[in-house]
Amino acid sequence: MIRSAFRFLRTNPLSVQQRMSQSCLAGKVAIVTASTDGIGLAAAQALGKRGAHVVVSSRRQANVDKAVALLRSQSIQVTGTTCNVGNAEDREKLVQMTLDQCGGIDILVSNAAVNPFFGNIMDSTEDVWDKILAVNVKASFLLTKLVVPHMEKRGVGATVKVVSAGRIQTWTPSVQGLGPYSVSKTALLGLTRALAPELAHSNIRVNCVAPGIIKTRFSSALWENEGIVKQFKKQLSIKRVGEPEEIGGVIAFLCSQDASYITGETITVTGGMGSRL
Ligand SMILES: NC(=O)c1ccc[n+]([C@@H]2O[C@H](COP(=O)([O-])OP(=O)(O)OC[C@H]3O[C@@H](n4cnc5c(N)ncnc54)[C@H](OP(=O)(O)O)[C@@H]3O)[C@@H](O)[C@H]2O)c1
């Protein structure tokens, strides 16, 4: 079976080329939020390496400048601006700047999230809930709402939301304490399921990627703690923490033509944690 598949690929180079061109994103414009570090930056790199013009942003100008310089040094077409996704004016500025400088929008990767609280969920306050839901959930929807009319003008679009495998799988007791954050990620799964059939009419796909523990600043309290990592590894088939690039590539796949029949779904990328939807 495998031998015949290789024989097919050897004797049909055109079909290989066709597959490659389907994953190519040349001519596409991609907004990635919170993209000056970690998973967002890796997603911008993955999209950019496939030919998309990427629009990177985060709250701090210095971080934007650094990310733009890095991506340019990798020959990626990039535009950068500050955008705190929790701020309506910033979201509008991000979209308008993209339209002015890139002429349209094809892809939105909604990656920004905050977690200002760690502890028993019964100890979380209204302020914590307001902040988490505003940034992680409401901003993701409102940004989608802003970009959809422009995707409709292009006749096609793809959006990916970064959620978390932590909400799908009950992680080890030592990392319980992420209650409100996990609820916000669960809400994004619901939002994805609600948006997918509605936006399919406009040829816009809506999906999620759910990372396990990935080596970024955001999760450093987990992967820098040897005890937590040891417990996690017991649940993993691939016995290591993931790298941001291992999420970026999956995001680029979901945005590409290779994923043209996938919508309303979540791909978990956890090193085989065994998470089930
Ligand atoms: N790392 C993991 O293990 C893991 C696991 C599951 C899910 N996730 C999810 O992955 C996403 C990215 O996390 P990460 O681990 O890549 O984090 P990270 O490496 O710490 O990067 C966070 C990025 O977000 C920006 N940012 C923070 N708040 C923002 C806001 N309100 N508006 C716009 N940008 C903002 C930061 O730049 P500024 O400081 O300049 O704003 C930075 O570029 C989050 O949705 C997180 O929930 C991560």
From TrEMBL:
<keyword id="KW-0560">Oxidoreductase</keyword>
<dbReference type="GO" id="GO:0004090">
    <property type="term" value="F:carbonyl reductase (NADPH) activity"/>
</dbReference>
<protein>
    <submittedName>
        <fullName>Dehydrogenase/reductase (SDR family) member 4</fullName>
    </submittedName>
</protein>
<comment type="similarity">
    <text>Belongs to the short-chain dehydrogenases/reductases (SDR) family.</text>
</comment>
<dbReference type="InterPro" id="IPR002347">
    <property type="entry name" value="SDR_fam"/>
</dbReference>
<dbReference type="InterPro" id="IPR020904">
    <property type="entry name" value="Sc_DH/Rdtase_CS"/>
</dbReference>
<dbReference type="InterPro" id="IPR036291">
    <property type="entry name" value="NAD(P)-bd_dom_sf"/>
</dbReference>
<dbReference type="Pfam" id="PF13561">
    <property type="entry name" value="adh_short_C2"/>
</dbReference>
